[in-house]
Fold this protein.
Amino acid sequence: MNNRSYITLTALIVALGGFLMGFDASVISGVNDFIKQEFKLSDFQLGWAVASLTLVSSLAMLFAGPVSDHFGRKQVLRWAAVLYAISAVCSALAPNYTMLVIARMIGGLGVGASLIIAPIYIAEIAPPNLRGQMVSFNQLNIVVGISAAFFSNYFILKLGESDAAWVTNLGIKGNQWRWMLGLETVPAIMYFLGLFFVPRSPRWLAMKGEFDEALEVMRKAAGEKAEQIMTEVRAAINSGGEKNKGSAGDLFAKSMRLVLIIGVVVGVLQQITGINSVFFYAPMIFKQSGIGQDASFTQAIYVGLINLVFTILAIALIDSLGRKPLLSFGVAGIAIFMFLLAYGFNSATYQLSAEGIANLPAEVKTEQLLAMEGQSFDNDVQFKKAMKDTLGDEMAGKYESDLISAAINMNPWLILIGILGFVASFAFSIGPVMWVLFSELFPQKVRGIAISAVGLINSAVSFLVQLIFPWELANLGSSMTFLIYGIFAALGFLFIIFVIPETKGRSLEELEKILIKE
């Protein structure tokens, strides 16, 4: 096996943690309506069921880097695989809302650890000319996991509608959401087993004084350049002496100011533009355009496919075009498509006709709606409030998609184009590039602590976005929600243009000399 094949295979195995994270992130999108009805959840409770995983992953990120500095990157990733498996089984078997949230919190520990440690490991083993692509494999696997979740959700949804005997015997019918969540057990076991075939990180080994093993690993990864790379690593460690043992206080040194600001802003920007609102609530968003449940699950599959295609494109270009051009074009696209979504939903009107009322499900008390026939509403907030006042919260919530489909007047293509364009822009830019930047910006002595810190901030923002999204749809409306995301993206574009440097093609030690000024 040649060096490129070796490093590619190693990076792909390690990045399976990204697959599990992506699967976990998106599988919940197909579960939301089921658990909301089964456990009779409020908007806030639904948001908590979704976001609880991310809250715990934020805390896990805080400790993942330092723990991996002590026990090793590989060992922490193996623990993460076990946590993913436990979470999947417990989520599928959860008898009530509280146990479901606890199970997702267990999964959050695995998400936080793998999301932080996988890119650190890959950056520490990959040669400079391949580092961008190799680290981006983690984001690629996140994207593949997202796509797999959308596909499996749709497949299980349709299975649940089948009258086949084996479907009934397996308990799929009536328990679709449990199967959606439990399926994650399979890739979690595969990840645990796959990690037996990867070496320990060479730079982590060097930090522990095991230079012979570190050089042996680097030779497999970088070939004849291994000696030069390890000489630079050894020199960086020796020059640091006791200072090489980084602490949290080192993050706030004056020399770290630029890289810390960049890390924090990029970490916030990746989430504040709403990507996990789309991944965690995709069917819910599409239902707001009035297309119904089956179509909303189908269009969620398009989200996964577009995400995959443009992530692959970004990985192919990141080491040739560079990090900054991808960020610039992509974040500009995010702003444009979020503004398009805001316009699309703002132009919608809602009016129940006699025909629309007659076509509602039989369970809906249509006689109560007859008084609203012909009444027009200018936005979704007003319409949903009127439905709750007329039918009650439970009935209006359960049949919200049917009611919107019966009343809405808008161009659903604008919403589909806006969502797909937004996902494409994200996948081409800040999705994969953020983790590459994180693995490059920070010096060796604080890399674990620093990436844990900015990863914590990134995850905390993600938690807030996921938690309040159902509330935003209910109280601010779809148009205002997406407008806010677009404004954040526009501000982020200006920061990228004027502040973020280019890092491609340089060794980690060279970047440290350039960016960290004592």
